[in-house]
């Protein structure tokens, strides 16, 4: 029979823009808030959690010294509950889910929390490296370029136009605004204290990123960011963000014993390596590999979440896999909603589970592109 892993509960903060509503909130406090909330929502005790795996992409300064453990202690988990911080770059949150799932599936533990936290305000992206990080010997093997340049190369390789990228970015904002209007994210967001523009304390219960003013005119007027004659603008890139998310996983039989109602079953998960120069198209082989493992076709998936690191990543993936864009990032993606690096994977999985339930669908697929050429992917089944 083997052991099956279920998702019991998922929760996230709203996502704040960099230097936005959560600019003064410590990333440990972001992490602690969702760790505390996820066990409360599940109705279990903190001491029944056997491990906490927390993604964080820039684990230095306010995010150093094992932020997983610090967040758990801040959230008043008993000292006996261990925690670890992991970094698979943009895939860290999803990898936290994978590692927690693997620990349960193997029989080492029965109950775990996968989480992620990132304050890109307090600890900017690339803070964990400098010009000495990559040795000259490695530079001789590979051309290390900025992700934005990789996105430009993907757009060129897959024959995408500037107009297509801008139209995709606009649809991300439109879908996100519609989802906010309909209150679709309300159940997954834990309202948290933040600050408005004037420094007054406010309760933040809505993602800060979606722009009502977004239009094809405003997007096409933006200058390329990475290459003078390029196609990628700030408008077709993910937003730098602050936020956290947490997800409670259990062995299915244990969930039944505890009379805890699971939301979804994790069927299969993969991590792949891909070309480190193109970097961001690993989502294509990752998607194909996880579908093959599950014995499913792309058409059998009811909802897709793919991280919108840059618009061409999603469009190239769609072109190569044949996934329907009507089922993809249906409530907007990182271009509109933001990408709090280490938290994104758990945030997206939470949204995917909820959307599957809303649609009464059966299968959901999450995939995330990763720096240096990697990707994570997983398929879940609604319970």
From TrEMBL:
PROSITE patterns: THIOLASE_2 (PS00737), THIOLASE_3 (PS00099). The keyword Methyltransferase does not apply. Residues 5-252 form the Thiolase N-terminal domain. The keyword Ribonucleoprotein does not apply. Pfam families: Thiolase_C, Thiolase_N. It comes from the Bacteria. This is Acetyl-CoA C-acyltransferase. Keywords: Acyltransferase, Transferase. The lineage of its organism: Bacteria, Bacillati, Bacillota, Bacilli, Bacillales. The active site is at 90 (acyl-thioester intermediate), 339 (proton acceptor), 369 (proton acceptor). GO terms for molecular function: acetyl-CoA C-acyltransferase activity.
